Amino acid sequence: MLKENKVIRFLIILNLVLLGIFLLGRVDYFTSTLKLILSIFLVPMLLAGFLYYLLRPMVRYITNLIHSRFIAIIITFLAIIILWGIVFYFGGSIIQIQFSNLINQYSNYYSSARNSINNVMEIPFLSRFNLREQVVVIMQSIFTGIKNNLLGFFSTLTNIGTILVLIPFVLFYLLKDDEFIYSSLLKLVPEKKRERINNIFVKTDNTLAVYIGSQVMIAIVLGFITLLGYLIIGLPNALILAFIAMVTTLIPFIGPILGSIPAIFIAVTESLLLVVKVLLVVIITQQLENNIIRPQVQGEMLRIHPLIIIFLVLTSIILFGFLGALFSIPFYAVIRVIFQELRESRQTGK
Predict the structure, then answer these.
(1) Which of 80-89, 205-214, 279-288, 340-349 has the lowest mean pLDDT?
(2) CA geometry: angle 80, 85, 90, nearest 5 deg
(3) Cα–Cα distance between 99 and 212 in angstroms, integer?
(4) How many other CB atoms sit within 10 Å of the CB of residue 175?
């Protein structure tokens, strides 16, 4: 009886919370303010956290050599700046030219596709159904969606410059004071629960470090393989298309498919044979990723069923865009670690 009362109380509270969120979501002032807060505070924290797990091994390695974390962070930042400087110095013009060509090809493809549809709609049998306006609206929405989703969640941000400025500062203090932040959070927990929470922190940290590090490594390897494949088949703007594929590969399963869409669009404007070649490159890279690269790099620690990944990624893309899809799997992995630890602690009676 007591358990049933707890369940009923929990359901009532949950329904009230959901009702409150729904009602607040109907208020434009609240939703706009919430988006502003998320864009200025949450997004820099998420991106800085992502970069933190990428740069932390390098910072700790240099710290062990020179015994100064501050100098180690400065050296790491300078190394990243120099690396990007070299990339843009030697490849900046190529990237700019290929990106401009890509935008022009998309514009030409949209114009040609619209003209082709108009010609088809001129057929007397089809004209009676008034399909032209409907198809044009659909095509416009598709191309507008592709253009907007290149930036994803960033399209809703009100001040991108502020975010870009905040990220290095947040990243610096995460790298500098991570141990202090960890110990301060742990002190807030009652002493009898401190061991359990410490285990959750440690496992969560290990999970995020393994996932983010391995996912970036997989994306880089697949990016180079994709670039090699695009160069071999003679795909125009191979460098920028391979870069897009590399970035989207950060999203498991769905990401490589999304990354191949721009290449397929470009191939369609060239020839049907090139489309087949692009599809072959995509299939080969997918097989290499799923059967060789990912098992070797990521191992068994983050074994998540593909259906769960697909559901999480698709839902996150619809709700939050690219950034939501990027962080959906780490978020799920953290929640799973917490529930597993709580279940183990209940079984052991701690």
Answers:
(1) 340-349
(2) 135
(3) 27
(4) 23
Count of CB atoms situated within 10 Å of the CB of 287: 11
| Averaged pLDDT of the chain | 75
Nearest to 263 by CA among 223, 205, 303, 296: 223
Confidence of residue 58 (pLDDT cuts 50, 70, 90): very high
Residue type, 12: I
Confidence at residue 61, expressed as pLDDT on a 0 to 100 scale: 92
Task: Assign residue 130 a region (left: φ > 0; alpha: ψ between -120 and 50; beta: otherwise).
Answer: left
Smallest Cα–Cα separation from 307: which of 346, 266, 349, 253? 253
Nearest CA to 266 out of 139, 149, 65, 102 is that of: 102
CA dist 339 and 196 (Å) reads: 12
Backbone conformation region of residue 299, classed left if phi is above 0, alpha if psi is from -120 to 50, else beta: left
* Surface-to-core class of residue 345, CB atoms within 10 Å of its CB (0-12 exposed, 13-18 middle, 19+ buried): middle
* Residue recorded with tokens 């697909």: 310
Hey, what amino acid is at 69? Answer: R
The end-to-end CA distance of the chain, in Å, is 25
Cα–Cα distances in Å, from 163 out to 41, 73, 132, 168, 269? 8, 20, 42, 9, 37
Nearest-Å Rg of the Cα atoms of the chain is 24
H runs (alpha helix) in 191-253: 194-233, 238-248
